[in-house]
Fold this protein.
Amino acid sequence: MAELPLTGGCNCGAVRFEVTEPLVFAAYCHCTRCQRRTGTGAAASAVTAPGSFSITSGRDKLRVWEPDPGGKKVFCARCGSHIYAENTNHSFFAVRMGAFDGDPGIRPSVRQFVAYAAAWEPVPDDGLKHFPERLELPSA
Amino acid sequence: MTDYPLTGGCNCGAVRFEVTEPLVYAYYCHCTRCQRRSGSGAAPGAIPAPGSFKILQGEDELQRWNAGDGFDKVFCSKCGSHVFAGAPDNPELASIRMGAFDGDPGIRPTRRHFTNYVAVWEPIPEDDPLERYPESLMDGPDG
C-alpha cells in the first residue's frame, strides 16, 4: 500500500501537492492534445477522491491553459511540469502520474482516445480496456 | 514516405516549427526529470540533423528551464506544451518532443535511456525490443 498522504510536485520545486486519500482511478489518454501537451505518445493521469487533493506550495506559480472545449490543464509556469487537470464541471481532479514523488499506489486500467494513438507508438496489447474515443467514467 | 518539411507546434498554436531533413534517431527517456516534466512515464525525443530544425513562429512565447545541468527544457508559456530540449550553448543541438509533430515524423524510438529510473506504474514490457541504457547514452548500453 502506498503511504498517505501521497506527495508530488514540479521539477523546479516551486509547486508541491498532496493527496490524502487513495487514488480512485487511473487512465492513459492518447488524444492529440495530450500528445502535444506532454510531448509523449500518451498521458497518464490519476483521479483523486473528492476533497483529497490540495496544492501545498507554489499556487502562485501555477499556470492554467483552458482549451475550448476541455478542462483546465495546470502546469508550473517556471519549469513547465504538468501537475493536474480539472474537468469541465469541476467534479474531479486528475493528477499527472509522473508528478508523484513515489509510487502513487494505483495503475492505469484503461486507455482512452486510442483512435488517435501516435503512429510512432502503437497502443500496447497490455490487457487494459481500450476506448476509441472518450471513456465513460465508472459511476461513483 | 514522409514529406518534408516536417511541421509541428504547441496546443494553443502560438509556437510552430519545421524540420527540413530526416530526423537522425529517436529514443525514450525514463529519467525522473522527464517524468515530472511530461507527467508521463517516459519521454520520446527525436534528434534533428544539424541546421534542419527551425522555430517558425512564437519564439517569444517559448520559455526555457534548466535544472543546472543538461539541456534547456523548452515549452510554450501559454499552454505548457513541451516542444524541444536544446543545448544552452549550442543552438544546433536539440531534441524535439515527438508528441509535438503534426503528423508522422517518419522515425521510431530505437532505445531507452535512464532505465534505472523507470516509473513503477509503467514497467517496460519484457519483450520490448529497444536497446536499454541504464543511465545516460554516454554511459553505454545495458550489459
User: Anything to note?
Assistant: The longest strand of chain B covers residues 90-97.
